[in-house]
Amino acid sequence: MPKIERYRAAVIGAGAIAQACHIPGYIRNKHSELVAFVDPALARHKEIEENFPGVRGYTSLDEMLAKEKPNVVSVCTPNKYHAACTIAALNAGCHVLCEKPIAASLQEADLMIAAAKQARKKLMIGFTNRLYRGPQKCKALLQKKTIGKPFMIRVRFAHGGPYPGWAKDKWFYEPDIAAGGVMLDMGIHAIDLALWLFGPIAAVSAKAATLIKRIPVDDNALLLLEFKNGALGYIEVGWTSKPGFTGFELYGTEGSLICDYVHGLKLCSGKASAGADSVNEWEMLDDKPATGGWPIEIDHWMDIVMGKEKLTMDGAAGRAALEVALAAYKSSRAGKRVAIG
Questions:
Q1: Secondary structure of the chain in the HEC alphabet?
Q2: Range of the domain at 234
Q3: pTM over 0.85
Q4: 254 lies in the same domain as 149
């Protein structure tokens, strides 16, 4: 197969995430040429024409794939359409970067993974938090056993919600299209981080609730995680939060890693006890741990397409996170612990 010098890229779905990350990312990357986008809403076409002139717009995915013949595609549609758009692009011979969550159901996720295998193309899920400097350093420190044996993880991701303010419309709050609320939006990032840093999850107990917003999906959620290695974890996600802690904490037998996305990544060591002999030693490891993410996501993706980087945020990772999220919804409805796998 001849080597491609410059990949033809296309974006399916031209909303907020496409305009903030994928479209400018392909334009900046020296190995890609953004040739087209697809979106059924003509209002999006006008926005793209104004902000990213020269990129051809389509309302039909099939027409775009047939005419433009892209090599790489980003799927940035609402969750309901992830599977159908991804499978169509894979069958057309494209490598696909799909936004999270991978799909609305495990059955759809399985079809996407099978389609990628059949097409012999790469499928990556957009777990952007893995591309921040802080999480990457924590992953390396865990591998070095810097904090000893890890036994507890805490993740908190919360803000005021995607709409109004950021998202282009309110599909995030429509159950049929989003397939869930904050637990499937921000929670999927938190779950993936927990899986990536601590390993497989054996069971989850959760409560999803609509506390503040007048929407038909959850705006806050809590998850208690039981890992297969015996560790525990808890996740808090919300769409109703004023500024507060955003990030995660890792606790081990020899120390702690506090990755505060705003105030820095710190390592705490020393002796922790309930008595007067407790001595804590703090070391700032990175004062800007949230460096990375969207600005480097497409560069990372293109390196994967070209074989320069290993694909880890693959379909299997997307499915694993979705399985935990769906189990958490089941736990919330039933009011009991749900085993996974």
A1: CCCCCCEEEEEECCCHHHHHHHHHHHHHCCCEEEEEEECCCHHHHHHHHHHCCCCEEECCHHHHHHHHCCCEEEECCCHHHHHHHHHHHHHCCCEEEECCCCCCCHHHHHHHHHHHHHHCCCEEECCHHHHEHHHHHHHHHHHCCCCCCEEEEEEEEECCCCCCCCCCCCHHHCHHHHCCCHHHHHHHHHHHHHHHHHCCEEEEEEEEECCCCCCCCCCEEEEEEEECCCCEEEEEEECCCCCCCCEEEEEECCEEEEEECCCEEEEEEEECCCCCCCEEEEEEEECCCCCECHHHHHHHHHHHHCCCCCCCCEHHHHHHHHHHHHHHHHHHHHCCCEECC
A2: 129-292+322-339
A3: yes
A4: yes
Residue 301 lies in a domain: no
Total domains in the fold of the chain: 2
Per-residue confidence in pLDDT tens, the chain, 341 aa: 556 779 999 999 999 999 999 999 999 999 999 999 999 999 899 999 999 999 999 999 999 999 999 999 999 999 999 999 999 999 999 999 999 999 999 999 999 999 999 999 999 999 999 999 999 999 999 999 999 999 999 999 999 999 888 888 899 999 999 999 999 999 999 999 999 999 999 999 999 999 999 999 999 999 999 999 999 999 999 999 998 999 999 999 999 999 999 999 999 987 666 656 666 788 999 999 999 999 999 999 999 999 999 999 999 999 999 999 999 999 999 999 999 98
